[in-house]
Amino acid sequence: VSVGMSMDIASIDTISEINMDYTATIFLRQRWTDERLCFDGNKSLSLDGRLVEMLWVPDTFIVDSKKSFLHDVTVENRLIRIYPNGTVLYAIRITTTVSCSMDLTKYPMDKQTCTLQLESWGYNINDVMFYWTRGNDSVRGLDTLQLAQYTVEDHFTSVTEAVYETGRYPKLVFHFELKRNILYFILETYVPSVLLVVLSWVSFWISQSSVPARICIGVTTVLTMTTLMMGARTSLPNANCFIKAIDVYLGICFSFIFGALLEYAVTHFCTLHQLSSKDAPDHTNKTDSNESKQTSSDRKGERNQHSGCSSAMSVMKRLFCIFDCFHVKNPYHIDNYARFSFPLSFIIINVLYWVYYLYF
Q1: Biased composition, Basic and acidic residues: where in the chain (predicted)?
Q2: What is the pLDDT of residue 210?
Q3: In the chain, domain spans
Q4: Is 195 helix (H, G, I), strand (E, B) or coil?
Q5: Which end of the chain, N or C, is more open, meaning fewer C-beta atoms within 10 Å of its C-beta?
Q6: Average pLDDT of the residues of the chain
Q7: Which CATH class is domain 2-181?
Q8: DSSP for 167-191?
Q9: Span 184-279+314-359 CATH architecture
Q10: Is 184-279+314-359 in the same CATH topology as 2-181?
Q11: DSSP code per residue over 259-328
């Protein structure tokens, strides 16, 4: 028996990234010819849906369906129409939740390709054959469909076979590509994160002596960015295999905000180090005068007493030598460098980020 199929997509209610599925309401129509139902006349005969139990119908099922139900208000939404030549039209209205494997590495600039697979449960290819009645035009309704976060870019149909241990079974597959609308995420996540990064740069123009003001800006922006990162992950699966594009961007923004806080810590440390170095010569002269008063025998005793700590002191001296290489003559210039380097680096990284995720 050759069974032709067509569908109308009434609605796609939800597309869940957490559960990796979508819920759709479809009108499924199946046509086949049963010579036993031929009758004289030139008009079709519409029958009550309850007569389905008395007729042969294909045992079609949705392969990746998690749960489905047939609408029954006010009666079961079934249609049986028989034509004089024995052709039977069987139409039903189904709401089904179908799994859809999603690749979220480019979220929210991603495109997802989902499928709806129709397959025969018990009849193999020797018993029935499935085909789309009008090819790619067999599925309608997607052109007028309005989705909250997605736009249907393309859709097509294919005919294949399912191979199991029990045999080969006919299968029809409907493919449709969904493109996520990024405007919502730009207003909800990207713009606030950029504003937080810019807010963290305000501390570069505040005097270094205003410790509470600069620390308050740094800590506040870090905590706010952490809250924004946690809120962006609530609607996504906690899968380690997905490093999403939005996670990368939030991580970049968090690094810049945290770097602005560390910049003030380094600046403040260098300022204190510079002030202490000014007092170091007086302290050195006093210690030198005290050391000159010691006898040679006392120096030998101290060398023997502290011989166990000589290796540790040498290591510390080497570390101090390394730190001296990064010595800043004027700590107040660090803010001037940060005012230029932080925005320039952020702009360059943004250009690389958007070019990579939009065009590669």
Answers
A1: 279-305
A2: 87
A3: 2-181, 184-279+314-359
A4: helix
A5: C
A6: 86
A7: mainly beta
A8: EEEEEEEEEEEEEE--HHHIIIIIH
A9: Up-down Bundle (1.20)
A10: no
A11: HHHHHHHHHHHHHHHHHHHHSHHHHHHHHHHHHHTS-HHHHHHHHHHTGGGHHHHHHHHHHHHHHHHT--
